Amino acid sequence: MKSTLFIQTLLKYPVFVANLRERSPDITRQELIVTILLRAGLSSSEIAGRLHCSVRTVENHRFRIRQKLELETNTHLADFLLTIKGENPTLFYALEQNAEPRYSSHFEQKHKNQKSKNE
User: Fold this and answer.
1) Theoretical Cys-Cys bridge with 93: which of 30, 40, 46, 81, CB 3.0 to 4.6 Å?
2) What is the spatial distance between Cα 6 and Cα 36, in angstroms, rounded to a whole number?
3) Does 83 score more than 90 pLDDT?
4) Burial of 55 (0-12, 13-18, 19+ CB in 10 A)
């Protein structure tokens, strides 16, 4: 199951995966999947449910990802991941779930403002 999910991740998000691996070559497969799901706007509990692991395991992955990317403690991980060039997982995830795309709070306001300007 996990290797299948990893292969799907590589196929759907090749640009993001390449750019993330360039920043942190030692990131693990599972951490890579967690970054995609975080970037899609999922919470730790939602990620845990999707990966069939505990919320604590997801929190540990998040901690190690932050260390490997050398992020400051005040930097929001999901927002940082959205700054890395690559495919937009919020749209892929929304299509898979037949739902509206979700964004982290900082980017949600920015997206709403841009959307209202375009209308």
Assistant:
1) 40
2) 10
3) no
4) middle
Which residue from 16, 12, 8, 10 is spatially nearest to 83, judged by alpha carbons? 16
Count other Cβ atoms within 10 Å, centred on residue 103. Answer: 20
The 10s digit of each residue's pLDDT in 36-77 is 888 888 899 999 998 889 999 999 999 999 999 999 888 888
Domain segments of the chain: what residues?
2-118
Q: What is the pLDDT of residue 106?
A: 46
Residues 53 and 42: their CA atoms lie apart, in Å, by 15
Q: Which amino acid is present at 52?
A: H
For the chain, first and last CA: distance in Å? Answer: 42
Residues 20/31, Cβ–Cβ less than 8 Å: no
Q: Which residue has the tokens 């901690």?
A: 63
